[in-house]
Predict the structure.
Amino acid sequence: GQEKAEPQPPSTPTQTPNLGVDAYFRLFSNALKWIYDYGPRIAELTEYSRDVVVHGGPKTSNLDVRRKILSRYEELAREGGLPANRIDSVNKTSSSWLALVKNLYFALFAMIGMNHGRRPNEIGGNKPYGMYYGCLKQISVEPNEHQIEFYVEKGPQDYRWFPANALVSDTVALLERLHLAMRHVDAPEVASAGNAGVGRSRVAFRF
């Protein structure tokens, strides 16, 4: 007759492996460097780039825009606060301006994740929710305290407010600065970052 199959132990739910201490430290250190050392200059270049595109006039060609961005980068690099002395393109290579912006976005994402342990889509993804322009609010001046609102996928499946430390508030401030600079050229001005009902439609990690 046929042999009976060996009984199998019950399956256990799989968990995402935790980062080792060394990997976590390297990720945290790099995120700090990109947010605090490079972030302000990259945001400044991004705002400058938007200004060139929006106010350049009909005679401004794509080549003119690229030249101005590359030239401005070198000016800022001489003042310090950028990861390289020059970039070789606007968006075509791994050492382009757009690559720097994407690296900064990754650092911002990582910093929020390390501080709040949210699911990836709760921070930013392809869902109709995620961190949005206006998700941070100040609740006290002395001491300086903030709260941040996330959509919680598991459990309530709704928005909830959580305490936000200084690392998180600095990260969100830089993220919202990038969001304004990277929005579509025809997008209207944004009055403030405090209206959650309106802001939830402005997902911050999309550009």
User: Anything to note?
Assistant: The chain is about 45% helix and 10% strand. Residues 21-55 form the longest helix (35 residues). The radius of gyration is 21 Å. The longest strand covers residues 145-152.
